[in-house]
Amino acid sequence: MAISKIENTRVKTLNSTPARADGEYVLYWMQQSQRAEHNPALEHAARVANASRKPLLVAFGLMDDYPEANARHYRFMLDGFPDIADALERRNITFVVQHGHPADVAIRLGARAHTIVCDRGYLRHQKAWRARVAEEAGCKVVQVEGDVVVPVEVASPKREYAARTLRPRIHRHWDDYLVELSTTAVKHGSLDLDVDGLDLSDIDQLFDSLKLDRSVPPNPDFKGGTLEAKRLFNAFLRNHFSSYDANRNQPQTDDVSHMSKYLHFGQISPVWLALRVLDARPGSADDRNSFLEEMIVRRELSMNFCEYDPDYDNFNCLPDWAQKTLREHADDDRPHCYTRKQLEDAETHDPYWNAAMREMRYTGYMHNYMRMYWGKKILEWCNTPEYAYKTVLELNNTYFIDGRDPNSYTGVAWIFGNHDRGWFEREIFGKVRYMAASGLERKCDIDGYVRKVDALVEAASGGG
Predict the structure, then answer these.
(1) Is 68 left (phi over 0), alpha (psi -120 to 50) or beta?
(2) What band does 460 get if pLDDT is binned at 50, 70 and 90?
(3) 5-146 in CATH: which number?
């Protein structure tokens, strides 16, 4: 089976166990890249299956207690399963979802497999699952990285200091990776395989059957899945892309793609998105450059951060200068101090911040410019920087549909000085960058944003 040089940089064999010659099928354990198109792991698995003259089985392990996930996250993810099943069925491939810990499901189905192909995750539990499968599977396990444009190790062998240090490394390679991914026709269908799985014909029933944290409800206005992601993105290109660069820091507008939540679940390919942007008729060079900077350089900086820093989810990940300056100012007088519940209930003196918290709580989304302000104010209003860090991260991961991923951990760390430089020293913040309400008033129509959120929350709460 010939593998191109570029494709080979996405592929890593995780163990020294040989393929199981008498295996019934090749198993693609789909966990991160939850899509049936423009998916390097799926296409690699199809080629392995053809080369070994085996059918291809695609499987997902559905657990009730994914770390920090609640009903909002689960519903968005489950919405995408019918898209996967239908698209794979058209390719004569079975998609099976089994209830259980993802690694257990992979090992159980892997006992009948010639080879296991998996996709890549960058968080410690995702790495641990793949390491366990590689150790216990009893057959060859291959990982294929498909949710970034430039593979992490190709871009850099170390943690990068900031976007400015990663950017030239990414640009050096991205032309090689911004190419359409061809679809491989499987030579041996798997639709007649005898493999049990959950019923995906009624997602409402499946959602209701799971034992989930239901404290945070789904937002029916945000539906998951590849088809919905493509519909939204095409509408964005038609109606909003030509003002993307001008308005990307204007939270009162709707000139955003909403792709972060779909990228979080791997329901859309970053390469596919980038190619659509490069081919789009609307928009200027500035719009294209701004979008690609955010989606490739900034997003892949977050993968670099989580891959190379084991403390990516706590205060200790911050650079020494940030930790030092924040601790030096830990005892500074704080004119406003709020409890976690007051913050969660949007009960502060700041109407702009309250609007941002309400948008987050009721919809699962917040404009990125407001996310920065929102986090900076929590740092200002908590009694210690360490507690502020914990609070920002917990709220982020609880309410955002795209929380709990490298982008989230990196965004939270930036609030406290990571991937940034020291600024003029001031109370509470020390040399960490500060944001003020007056800056919002000067740089955007912040009252327009508040009105927009009021309307969104009223709609999300049924008009009550």
Answers:
(1) left
(2) confident
(3) 3.40.50.620
